[in-house]
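G., the chain you wanted modeled:
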Amino acid sequence: MKKKKPNLKTIKNKRAAFDYHLEDSLVVGIELNGRETKALRLGHGQLVGSFVNIKNNELFLVNCLISTSNTMQIPESEQTRDRKLLAKRKEIDSLVDAKKQGRSILPTEILTGGRFIKVRIAIGKGKKKYDKRQTLKAKDENKRIRSEVV
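Predicted structure as tokens:
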């Protein structure tokens, strides 16, 4: 009997890399219900504007949108609810220390490829406006070089 290949869809937060200097990343689990799991596997999720908050020494994913699909409905109040992230105590303590230093904790992508749905989070430091302009300039330069080669 053939094994099924996992569906390797990821939901990425491209805005996080543009707005922040990302440093250490970490893969953690997420607590979801059945409808949310199904919606994420179908690709109906969005990380733009979401962040990780720490309450009572636990991690929570805030403002992550999981939208409905045609087959199942998720109530509007449930679409952007706070979702608990599952990590080891040592990892949580290191994230708390980073938060105390004034850094942000951001989700960079949702990994739906295996049996479990995981979230990759990274510690980031906010970019200034001129840093963002330099990023865009470098991106345009790389695009121009690639087009000249072809």
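The beta strands are 10-12, 20-30, 45-46, 51-55, 58-62, 65-66, 83-86, 104-111, 118-126.

Shout if anything looks off.
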